[in-house]
Design a protein that fits this description.
By secondary structure, the protein is largely without helices or strands. The chain is 0% helix and 0% strand. It has no helix or strand.
């Protein structure tokens, strides 16, 4: 299913799109800094290369969304569903991913520096190269986080 919603490269800074149905929308390259997108349906949406700095995406549905090369620093993604999402090369530094579902997500070449991953589900996710056991992670990573095989707390 393709969306008729084409906001490619659009300027939506600080837009209030909370609870909107943007499933399959083309938001690639969009400027969404500080936008309110909480509880928004963004299933399979194309957000590649989008600027989402400081956006509020908590409890959003981003299942299978394309967020490759997106700029997501300090974004609130707590409780969001990012299962199967493409986050390759995405900048998630300082973002809140607590309680987020990242199962099967592609995070290779991504930046997770200082991201809060407490209670996140990372099972089956592809993590950035060089990421090691929990002792190598910054604050915000807890034993309740579900890790891919070969990662997690050191016993």
């Amino acid at each position: 299913m393709d969306s008729s919603i084409d906001l490619n490269g659009g300027d939506l800074e600080k837009a209030d799109l909370a609870y909107a149905d943007l499933a399959y929308a083309d938001l690639s390259g969009a400027f969404l800094r500080g936008a309110s997108l909480f509880c928004t349906d963004l299933r399979r949406a194309d957000l590649s290369g989008a600027d989402l700095c400081g956006a509020k995406l908590y409890q959003a549905n981003l299942t299978g969304a394309n967020l490759s090369e997106a700029d997501l620093p300090y974004v609130d993604l707590s409780g969001a569903n990012l299962s199967g999402a493409n986050l390759s090369g995405a900048n998630l530094s300082g973002s809140n991913l607590s309680g987020a579902n990242l199962s099967g997500a592609d995070l290779h070449k991504g930046n997770l520096r200082e991201a809060n991953l407490s209670r996140a589900n990372l099972e089956g996710a592809t993590l950035p190269e060089g990421i090691g056991k929990i002792d190598a992670w910054p604050a915000g990573v807890w034993p309740t986080t579900l890790w891919p095989e070969g990662y997690g707390p050191i016993s």
